Amino acid sequence: MSEPPAPTPSVLAALTAFARPAGPGEGSAEDPALLVALDFDGTLAPLVDDPTTSRMTDPARAAVERLAELAGRTRVRLALVSGRDLADLADLGGPPEGTYLVGSHGAETGHVVGGRLESVALELDGGQRAALRDVAATLDEAATGHPGIWVQHKPSAAVLHTRLADDAAAVDAAVLAADGVADRLGLHALHGKDVVEIAVVTTSKGEAVERLRGVVADAVGAPSARVLYAGDDTTDERAFAVLHDEDLALKVGPGPTVAPYRVADADALAGLLERLADALERGSSPPDGS
Ligand SMILES: O=P(O)(O)OC[C@H]1O[C@H](O[C@H]2O[C@H](CO)[C@@H](O)[C@H](O)[C@H]2O)[C@H](O)[C@@H](O)[C@@H]1O
């Protein structure tokens, strides 16, 4: 496996500030917990045409597993925060022990404990179920007969996929139909990378990250938690938007963003996470190095 690329000096400085303990060394009761919250598609797993084949890159997998292992003995905690539904995220993400999971952009949450995924079942009310049927039928109809346009059905959303379509006019018409049904039902159409997603549960990755911040501070027994959030898509902007000065927002890849820092791709992100793990390892080692 090749070494991940070295992070740029400005990102490294931001990482050092993010990881710094409250006092001269690790171990003070005042040290904040560190929540490392990572988007999945386009962030840890390169984008591919068939979403069922998405996988983390080897360096990303190695970095995630190392951070998860460190969660057992330092103040860091790991979360995967995705638009995927929870079962799909757990299946494709292969989250290590202790990982917090956020699926469906915040509508579903889980935690890997004792090798099992603990989660609260997502319950839709009658109105939400009816809206989901309407959205799904509209998107299915918009996709029918147009090669490369297809619909992914999730427990609380339907997603129009257009990555494989060559006919720009057909894509425009399908996207218009998706925006139309969202408007008609008073729902929000999330425009991501070659997808339009319409969910019947109102939430966001921003809300999910704020919730996790509290959960992780409590789990660590820390007075507060800092958040490192990395993501590549428009939906990740909602998470970046809730971060504060002491947090670290990392945009992965090109495109407009409110995040002040950027890394090129999954492997560059992995390089940065390995540096964070190095710093935590050093901080958690006894002074004599034994
Ligand atoms: O929040 P994420 O983990 O980034 O998930 C967002 C959506 O990811 C998937 O779609 C994206 O990845 C696909 C596989 O690489 C790609 O084909 C598609 O064009 C991308 O938009 C997933 O299929 C969606 O359900 C997620 O909401």
From TrEMBL:
Keyword Nucleus applies = no
Domain of life according to the entry: Bacteria
Q: EC no.?
A: 3.1.3.12
Q: Which GO terms describe its molecular function?
A: trehalose-phosphatase activity
Q: Which UniProt keywords apply?
A: Hydrolase, Magnesium, Metal-binding
Under catalytic activity, the entry for this protein gives: alpha,alpha-trehalose 6-phosphate + H2O = alpha,alpha-trehalose + phosphate
Question: Mind telling me which InterPro entries this protein's record contains?
Answer: HAD-like_sf (IPR036412), HAD_sf (IPR023214), OTSB-like (IPR044651), Trehalose_PPase (IPR003337)
Q: In which pathway does it act?
A: Glycan biosynthesis; trehalose biosynthesis
Pfam families, per this entry?
Trehalose_PPase (PF02358)
Tagged with keyword Protease? no
Tell me which cofactor or cofactors this protein depends on.
Mg(2+)
Q: Which family does it belong to?
A: Belongs to the trehalose phosphatase family.
Described by its record, this protein's role is as follows: Removes the phosphate from trehalose 6-phosphate to produce free trehalose.
**What protein is this chain from?**
Trehalose 6-phosphate phosphatase
Identify the species of origin: Isoptericola luteus
